[in-house]
Prior knowledge:
Structural class: alpha+beta
Order of helices and strands: HEHHEEEEEHHEHHEEHHEE
Number of strands: 11
Helix content: 55-70%
Distance between the termini: 70 Å
Amino acid sequence: MKRQNWIICMFACSGVTLSAQTETDKQVFTLDHAIALAQEQSPEAQAARHTYRSAYWSYRSFRANYLPSVSLISNPYLNRQINKVTQPDGTELFIRQNQLSIDLGFQISQNLSLTGGNFFIQTSSQRMDELGTGSTAYSTQPISIGYSQSLFGYNYLKWDKRIEPVRFREAGKAYAETLELIASKTCELFYSLATAQTNLNIAAANYASADTLYRYARGRYNIGNITENEMLQLEVNKLNEETNLMQARIEVEDAMLTFRSFLGIREDVTIEVEPSDSLPSFEIPLDEALRQAYANSPDMDMYQRLRLESRSELASARASRGLKADLYLQFGLSQTSDKFKESYRDPLDQQYVSLSIAIPILDWGRGKGKVRVAKSQVELVETQVAQGMTDFELNVRKMVRQFNLQGRQVQVAAKTDRTAQKRYEVALRLYLLGKSTILDLNAATTEKDSARRNYMTAMQTYWTLYYGLRSMTQYDFEHDRPLWHNLPTEL
C-alpha cells in the first residue's frame, strides 16, 4: 500500500514538475495584452491605418473644394522670332519680333455647390518691352470680377457634398470594425496556441504517467500479478504517448510562429499564452444589438453611398445627353500706359460675356443608352442593398443568438473538464489498487484530455464571437459605448 501511495504522488507531481520548467527568452501574453499589441503593430492594423489615413486626406481634399482658393499667377515669356503679323490694311507680313513680357496676377476664387459654378475676383498687371526699340508699355486690371457656369451640366460639387461625408464616415467605421476583426482573429490564434500548449501539457503528463505505469507494470508482471497482454498494452500506451508528445511540440511551434507573425513580432522569441477563466457575465438583447448595428455598422453607410453614387451616375448621364450651355461673365476695370503709375489712373470699364451652346441633333441613341444603363444600375443597386441589409440583419441575429448561448456552453465545458479530471484521478487510483482494468484507465484518460480540449475550444469560440459581434455592431455592450466615435481625425 505504501508503494501504491508513493506512485500516486508521483503522478500528482509530474504535471507540476513539467509546468515549472521555464525558458530564459520568453514572452508571456494574456488575451488583453495580445489584442492591444495586435491592434497597434500587426500588419493588418498598419494596413487599416494607412487605408483610414488615405480616406482622411481624401476627405480633406474634398472639403477644400468648397473653400476659397488664392492663387498667384504669372506667365512671363521672351519672344525673339519672325512671325506672321496682320497689318491694318488686312495684309500679312513676316516681321521679326523682339519682345519681353512680364506679368503678375492675384486671384481669389470660390466654388458654389448650389449651382456648380465658380466665382472669382482678380487683379493683374503686365509689362511689355520691345527690346529692339527700347519702348515699354504697361497693361493693368485693378479689379476684375467673373463667374463661370455650366447651365445644364452635371453638378459634381452638389453630388460630392452628399457622397463624400458618407464615404468618410464609412471609412472611420470600417477602421474601427477592422480593429475589432483583428481582435477576433487574435482570439482565434491566441486560443489556437493555448490549445497547442494544453495538448503539449497533456501529452507530457500522459507520457510521464504511461512511463511510470509501464515501469510499475514490469515489476508486477515479474511477480505474476498482471498478464503479459496487459504489460504489452501499457508499453504500447507509452510509445503512443511519446509520439503524441513529439507531435504536440511541433504543433506548439507552428501555432507560436503563426501567432508571432500575426502580432508583427520580428524577434525570435518564445511566446507563451495564459488564458483567463473569467468571462464577462452578460447577455445581449437582440433588439438592442440590431439597433446599434444599424446605427454604427459601416455597411449601412456603404449602402447609402452606393445609392448616392448610382444616382450621381444617372444625373451625369442625363446631363451629357441633352442641351449643353456654358456661361462666362467677367466685369472689371483696365488701363494701359507707357508708365506703370499712369496705367492705374482713370481705368476704363470692361465687360466680357460668353455663352456657348451645343444641341445634340443625332447621336444614334448613344445618350439614351447611357441613361438607360444608369437607370438599370440604380435599380440593381437598390436590389443589392435590400438583399445586403436582409443578410446583415440575419447575421446579427445569428451571432447574438450564438453568443448568448456560448456563455452557457463555456460553463458546461468548464464543469465537464473538472469532472473528467476527478474521474481520471479516481480511475488511476483504482487501477493502482488493482480494482479496475487498463481499459477503464485509458477511457478516463481520453475523456480527461477531450474535456480539456473542448473547454479551450469553447473559450476560443466565446471570445471570437464576442469581438465578432463588436465588429458587426460597432458597440461595446459590456461598457455601453460606441466604438468608432473616438477615432483620431489624423493618424
